[in-house]
């Protein structure tokens, strides 16, 4: 694909200086293996990204660790959440495999893992306050954290705009 | 799959002539997860005497476990949410399985209520909790389950149930505090109190007719679920084994605590709270 610039179009084979991948490469080479540098031992922090599934889960990935929850669209459809079944820490899940469930006044609904990996943490606040999922579905109401075993699976998921289009078509 | 040779429409009905509760629930699970998600299914079934609790409920809170054991009445934990119900052969269950995007809580209950009104001239209606009532008394409760491609609504229908058993076996224990879901009790009645012609067979026929007309425009022939059919769907045995296991029935109970209080003659009240977590067995942790 061609990338537009102030001077016209350039081939995507020539990566502009502002491109994220180019910045990461410069920074990596500046700090890695620099003798005497106090930053020498630092590992580079990958950009976090938020992706969505067609089944209305979201995932934010940072340092290969994904935080997972259900979307605002899903919590509205479910109604008041009365119980959350979180997966067990240590469980290995596959992409699209069940990783918990939510019971609301309307229905019991399975939750599916957006990516494969190991469950390393669960939101213990949901046991006492399941309504967190209704109040803050995409922040404080997170369900679990997954250590990704196959980060390329993120490419299968939807960007935010595509997810919102998907929700509109479902109506 | 051979089972669908007769189905050229978007609707199919199954009627079970089995009364084992674990088998009927296992068949429901199989229909839900292993059939064409684009087809609407109606499944009609009834169980021999049992108590069925919701997915996230506490059996010790919701029913008299010891009495049920003494009377040889099993407790079954179902996969959908909601509260605890008593089943016997006077209660008929209906399950409506639809594509997920078509899921509503009202539509199926409306069809069942309409079937009762038309066939038996009983003034049944759907209330705001999506229960079916007659003159402010409940005859049917519902629960719902959603997965990736599908959803189901299943409900009970008290046709000729021994209502005294409900009060006898379903007894909420007040000193047990559960993190799970609690039942909401309602006064009940049964269809037989309003019609002498209603029974399991006529109810099933009325509901099938109403659903058939709604989804296909004509009467659909049901597939009968019997032992012969079970041999063709061995996966139901796996579901049945899971439903029958202690790990599922009791082991899935959310954390709970039990409070004991004693008042002594000299006036002090001593309270003992025992926290219970089930991890591969029952674990008690007393805390004063």
TrEMBL record, chain A:
Binds 1 lipoyl cofactor covalently. CDD domains: GCS_H. It holds the Pfam family GCV_H. Keywords: Lipoyl, Mitochondrion, Transit peptide. It is found in: Mitochondrion. The keyword Mitochondrion applies. InterPro entries: 2-oxoA_DH_lipoyl-BS, Biotin_lipoyl, GCV_H, GCV_H/Fam206, GCV_H_sub, Single_hybrid_motif. Residues 65-147 form the Lipoyl-binding domain. It comes from the Eukaryota. GO terms for biological process: glycine decarboxylation via glycine cleavage system; protein lipoylation. GO terms for cellular component: glycine cleavage complex; mitochondrion. PROSITE patterns: BIOTINYL_LIPOYL (PS50968), LIPOYL (PS00189). Its main location: mitochondrion. The keyword Mitochondrion applies. Its cofactor is (R)-lipoate. The modification N6-lipoyllysine is found at residue 106. The H protein shuttles the methylamine group of glycine from the P protein to the T protein. PANTHER family: GLYCINE CLEAVAGE SYSTEM H PROTEIN (PTHR11715), GLYCINE CLEAVAGE SYSTEM H PROTEIN-RELATED (PTHR11715:SF3). Belongs to the GcvH family. The glycine cleavage system is composed of four proteins: P, T, L and H. This is Glycine cleavage system H protein.
From TrEMBL, chain B:
Pfam families: LplA-B_cat. The chain crosses the membrane at residues 264-285. InterPro entries: aa-tRNA-synth_II/BPL/LPL, BPL_LPL_catalytic, LipoylTrfase_LipoateP_Ligase. The keyword Membrane applies. The keyword Transmembrane applies. Pathway: Protein modification; protein lipoylation via exogenous pathway; protein N(6)-(lipoyl)lysine from lipoate: step 2/2. Residues 36-219 form the BPL/LPL catalytic domain. GO terms for biological process: protein lipoylation. Gene3D superfamilies: Bira Bifunctional Protein, Domain 2. GO terms for cellular component: mitochondrion. Keywords: Ligase, Membrane, Transferase, Transmembrane, Transmembrane helix. It comes from the Eukaryota. Belongs to the LplA family. Catalyzes both the ATP-dependent activation of exogenously supplied lipoate to lipoyl-AMP and the transfer of the activated lipoyl onto the lipoyl domains of lipoate-dependent enzymes. This is Putative lipoate-protein ligase A. The lineage of its organism: Eukaryota, Fungi, Fungi incertae sedis, Mucoromycota, Glomeromycotina.
């Amino acid at each position: 694909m061609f990338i537009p610039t102030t001077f016209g179009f350039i081939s995507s084979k020539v990566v502009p200086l502002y491109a994220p991948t180019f910045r990461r490469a410069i920074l990596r080479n500046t700090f890695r293996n620099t003798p005497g540098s106090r930053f020498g031992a630092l590992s580079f922090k990958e950009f976090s990204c938020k992706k969505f599934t067609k089944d209305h889960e979201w995932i934010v990935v940072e340092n290969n660790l994904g935080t997972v929850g259900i979307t605002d669209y899903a919590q509205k459809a479910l109604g008041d959440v009365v119980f959350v079944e979180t997966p067990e820490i240590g469980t290995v899940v596959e992409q699209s495999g069940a990783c918990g469930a939510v019971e609301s006044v309307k229905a019991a609904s399975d939750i599916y893992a957006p990516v494969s990996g190991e469950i390393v943490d669960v939101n213990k606040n949901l046991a006492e306050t399941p309504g967190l999922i209704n109040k803050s579905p995409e922040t404080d109401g997170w369900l679990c954290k997954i250590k990704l075993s196959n980060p390329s699976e993120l490419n299968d998921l939807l960007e935010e705009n595509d997810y919102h289009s998907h929700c509109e078509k479902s109506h | 799959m051979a089972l669908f040779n007769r189905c050229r429409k978007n609707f199919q009905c199954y009627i079970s002539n089995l009364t084992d509760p674990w088998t009927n629930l296992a068949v429901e699970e199989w229909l839900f997860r292993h059939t064409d998600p684009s087809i609407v299914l109606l499944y009609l079934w009834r169980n021999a005497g049992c108590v069925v609790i919701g997915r996230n409920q506490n059996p010790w809170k919701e029913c008299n476990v010891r009495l049920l054991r003494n009377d040889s009445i099993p407790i079954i934990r179902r996969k959908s949410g909601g509260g605890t119900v008593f089943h016997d052969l006077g209660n008929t269950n209906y399950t409506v399985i639809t594509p997920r995007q078509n899921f509503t809580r009202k539509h199926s209950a409306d069809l069942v209520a309409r079937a009762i009104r038309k066939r038996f001239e009983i003034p049944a209606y759907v209330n705001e909790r999506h229960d079916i009532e007659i003159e402010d008394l409940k005859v049917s409760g519902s629960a719902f389950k959603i997965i990736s491609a599908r959803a189901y609504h299943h409900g009970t229908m008290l046709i000729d149930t021994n209502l005294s058993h409900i009060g006898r076996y379903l007894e909420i224990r007040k000193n047990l505090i559960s993190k799970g879901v609690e039942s909401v009790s309602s006064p009940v009645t049964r269809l037989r109190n309003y019609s002498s012609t209603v029974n399991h067979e006529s109810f099933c026929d009325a509901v099938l007719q109403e659903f058939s007309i709604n989804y296909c425009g004509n009467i659909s022939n049901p597939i009968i679920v019997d032992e012969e059919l079970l041999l063709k769907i061995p996966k139901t045995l796996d579901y049945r084994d899971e439903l029958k296991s202690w790990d599922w029935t009791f082991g899935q109970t959310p954390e709970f605590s039990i409070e004991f209080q004693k008042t002594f003659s000299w006036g002090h009240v001593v309270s003992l709270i025992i926290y219970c977590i089930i991890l591969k067995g029952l674990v008690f942790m007393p805390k004063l």
